Amino acid sequence: MIYLDDVSIERKFFTRKQLAYRQLVLLPTSLAIPTHRKVALLASDDEHGRDLILDAIAGKLLPTTGRIIRDANISYPAFQTGAFDPEQSVKDAIAFVARLYGLNPHETVEAVSHACLLGRALDRPFGALPIPLKKRIAFLCCYSIPFDVYLLSEGGFGSWRTGRDLEYRIFKARALSAGFIVTARSDRFVLEHCDSALVLMGARLYFFENPEEGLEIKHKFGRSQSGSPRVIRRKNWFHKFSTGVLHR
Amino acid sequence: VSHLDKVALVSIIIKTASDTRRYFRVIRALLLKAETEKRKAPAEALLELAEPVFLVALFTTARHFVEQNGVMLPPPLGDSVVLFYATGFFPKYFFIYISIKRIKGAVSVSHRRFPIERRLDHVVAHIILYSIDYTILGCVLFSLLAAFWVPSAIPSHFAPIMQSLVCLAMMGFGWGILNIVLARSFPLWFYISGAINRTTILISGALFVPDFLNPPVRYVLSFNPELHAIALFRTGFYPYYPTLILDEKYMLHCSLIAVIFGLVLERVTRRAERR
């Protein structure tokens, strides 16, 4: 179980008028999240902070108030490459993760390089790789470690609908034995893979036993329909900071 | 003791043991990472000696020019000016580099870390690595001095030297954490702390023997814990070093206070360290 004990999370962003603006993305919440379930972390399009909540659960970000008690072995957010040192070589970076989490570094490097077809790229600096490859390496490093709960976002998968994506196949296989918390956008993904839902609504988190209920609530109170991604075109570059999140 | 208490006790022991194992694993991984970095540029460590060596050379040549003009300037202590300055600057720069050198880079970014590695782990790994590094550099420096310049550069006692270096590392820990925390809210802080570190060379007894000063000045300077550490370092090289104001207890207490202060400060400001 993951216990959120009076946890609130704040985010900073920048506007034209104010330099730093603070907003609570999660009001003080106490909640228990089961670790053996397949949880979808949902939010309507006008809610911010799903990834911040995921970071806080991972332990990457300390909440503004309260504490999070983790009664399980929890992964780092699987598609996030920020923690890898861009100046290290790929080999050293993978070995470093393996050593951190107590795996055999040589075996891990071999397995990851075999799965990604890294070859000569093993000796290049990590920062010099293309972004999809970086994401794939981060994901495979994460999934080579036997965690109880995996944290990831749906956006990291390629075309998961075809079922041929490597990450997606690994994710499906591991989901048989471990729980996960995934931030999902599309309804189909949630209905296919998850058996419960966490909905972020009005800066509060609610846990639902079945995902249909969560999706219904999300659609009912959200501003726009999910599943049809909104594209907002901005006039100037600084509009990016003024409102909302730029949706893909 | 009931059965439930026993179960709770055992679970606490298991949890503590696994946490300890995890902690050492993280420290080991960080040290190995730093080692692979060092392998790529092995001569870079020599640059860390550049500043103290330059300062020793500067002060020695300055004395030389003064003596050429007919003013008699005996060395502050012993036969050799070079050894005296080297034994002053070496521990001082150990303290300076422990407190700022790599702590700066390892710690200022929070989102560039895995959740398992904490800020304190980076600091501890840095201090372990740097202590090893600087000990080796010190062996090289003083053996080179002994071979080519001053035969008495081999220390007669190693215990006081180790004591002073350990205390300096502890003080550097506290000062380093303060540096990190202040630099977080005030980005120019590292320039200021660098200036502070260099100006305190003047009052930490690297350039003179504090016992030979007049009593009021001596009394004021004796509140500086670094001065005691440098004096203790020198007693390893000079068997008859004047130890009138040397107070090992005061030095030890100051370094313990620095460690506690650093740990508390790290804990208190952990929430403020956001991305």
Model description:
The complex is a heterodimer of chains A (248) and B (275). Chain A has 248 residues and is of the alpha/beta class. Chain A contains 8 helices and 8 strands; from the N terminus they run βββαβαααβαβαββαα. Chain A has helices at 50-58, 90-100, 105-116, 131-143, 166-174, 187-193, 211-221, 239-242; strands at residues 2-13, 21-33, 38-43, 65-70, 149-153, 179-183, 196-201, 204-208. A 5-stranded mixed beta sheet of chain A has the order 5-6-3-7-8, sandwiched between helices. A 3-stranded antiparallel beta sheet of chain A has the order 2-1-4, covered by helices on one side. The radius of gyration of chain A is 19 Å and the shape is globular. By secondary structure, chain B is mainly α. Helices cover 71% and strands 0% of the residues of chain B. Chain B contains 11 helices and no strands. Chain B has helices at 3-40, 44-47, 50-68, 81-100, 103-107, 119-148, 159-185, 189-199, 215-221, 225-237, 248-268. The longest helix of chain B is centred in the first third of the chain and has 38 residues, at 3-40.
Give the biggest beta sheet of chain A.
5 strands, mixed
Inertia-based shape of chain B: elongated
Helicity level of chain A, as a percent range? 25-40%
DSSP summary: helix tally of chain A:
8
Strand content of chain B: under 5%
Order of helices and strands of chain A: EEEHEHHHEHEHEEHH
What share of the residues of chain B lie within helices? Answer: over 70%
Alpha plus pi helix count of chain B: 11
- What is the helix/strand order of chain B? HHHHHHHHHHH
Strand order, largest beta sheet of chain A: 5-6-3-7-8
Structure summary, number of beta strands of chain B: 0
Largest pleated sheet of chain B: none
Q: Which chain pair shows the most residues in contact?
A: A-B, 21 and 22 residues
**Radius of gyration from the alpha-carbon trace of chain B, in angstroms:** 22 Å
- Unreliable residue stretches of chain B: none
What general form of chain A does the structure show? globular
From the N-terminal CA to the C-terminal CA of chain A, the straight-line distance is 33 Å
In terms of per-residue confidence, which ranges of chain A show pLDDT below 50 for 5 or more consecutive residues? 225-236, 243-248
The average pLDDT of chain A is 84
Helix/strand-derived class of chain B?
mainly alpha
Assembly category: heterodimer
